Amino acid sequence: MNDLELKRTVETELNWEPSIDAAEIGVAAKDGVVTLSGHVKSFWEKWSAERTASRVSGVRAIVNEVDVHLPTSSERTDEEIAKAAVHALDSSILVPSKRITIKVSKGWITLEGAVDWQFQKRAAESAVRHLIGVKGIINLVEIKPTASAGEVKASVDAALRRSAELDAGRIKVDADGDKVTLRGSVRSWAERDVAERAAWAAPGVRVVDNRITVGALSAGA
């Protein structure tokens, strides 16, 4: 797929997604790297646009330059956003109670603290992503190590093999303490993301260095 075809395919996918006003989003493509520009009315829509573009086969990387322009009806003070964020975290059964702190500055939420699992870190961000008035999120929540390197590698290998969306034979896993490095190749950016999420699901993983490429590359590269 050439750059023009990729651009048009991403545009079609954005138009297909009902949560996005695709008319406000520009798309450029070069060598598999897709750049999104323009403006949207919420951080949720900006995030959704990036996720939607990542589903397209041939996308190797995404640069999200979309700006969040809040309508007057969505403007909130930092204090209002902070109160709503605290309530959202307290209401989530996936987020450990009192383990995450929130800072808000000019509509940007910063999450800090420590949890045991990557899904808890993702859940915290997901809980506040949709809040009215939010312009962006910085997720600094850390993950505590709970397993040895050998256990981490074995867990990640098993998770990759279980996934129906992946050809695990094309992915190589290395573990150094609580850091996991993924190498190899997959057919799409979305499949690359599946592999990374599978790695993050293993207990004890604090860092995932995803070096998987989209295209033809041997798993041992």
3D shape: flat
Proportion of residues in helical segments: 25-40%
Distance between the termini: 24 Å
Could you give the count of β-strands? 12
Overall number of structural domains: 3
CATH architecture of the largest domain: 2-Layer Sandwich
Mean pLDDT: 87
Model regions low in confidence, pLDDT < 50 over at least 5 residues: 217-221
CATH T-level topology of the largest domain: Histidine-containing Protein, Chain: A
**Biggest sheet descriptor:** 4 strands, mixed
Query: What string gives the helices and strands in order?
Result: HEEHEEHEEHEEHEEHEE
**Global Rg:** 19 Å
CATH C-level class of the largest domain is: Alpha Beta
Query: What structural class is derived from the secondary structure elements?
Result: alpha/beta
Instruction: Count the DSSP helices.
Output: 6
Beta-strand share of residues: 25-35%
Quick summary of this structure?
The protein is α/β, with parallel strands linked by helices and 221 residues long.
Describe this structure in words.
It is built from six helices and twelve strands. It has 221 residues and is of the alpha/beta class. It folds into three domains: 66 residues, 2-Layer Sandwich (Histidine-containing Protein, Chain: A), CATH 3.30.1340.30; 72 residues, 2-Layer Sandwich (Histidine-containing Protein, Chain: A), CATH 3.30.1340; 66 residues, GMP Synthetase, Chain A, domain 3, CATH 3.30.300. Strand 6, helix 4 and strand 7 form a beta-alpha-beta unit.
